[in-house]
Amino acid sequence: VSTQSTWGANLCKELAKSIQDKVKTLGYERYKLVVQVVITESRGQGQRVASRCLWDPEEDNYAHAHFRNASLMATAIVFGCYWE
User: In a 3-state reduction of DSSP, which class is residue 68?
Assistant: First the structure.
């Protein structure tokens, strides 16, 4: 495992934890939060992130954000699933 891949994996974990902590402060106590962060090298290509899950479209939802600069692309997705 290279140092760069370890750096990327650690950064994904740190970002996911930070995002989850911030979303928790918004007061969604009845929701199970799942945060996914993907970081890839930017070499002129695109990035697609796909997810599948079972949920209730009336109660559950998600939000996403995308960042890109000359060297990397990052996508963060937060899933909120209502917890009864």
Answer: strand
- Which residue is associated with the tokens 């891949």? 5
List Cβ<8 Å contacts ≥24 apart for 20-23: 20/78, 23/78, 23/80
Gap between the Cα atoms of 32 and 24, Å rounded: 10
Q: What distance in Å separates the CA atoms of residue 33 and residue 54, rounded to the nearest whole number?
A: 14
Question: What confidence tens digit (pLDDT) does each residue in 24-48 have?
Answer: 999 999 999 999 999 988 887 778 8
pTM: 0.84
E strand spans, the chain: 31-41, 61-68, 72-82
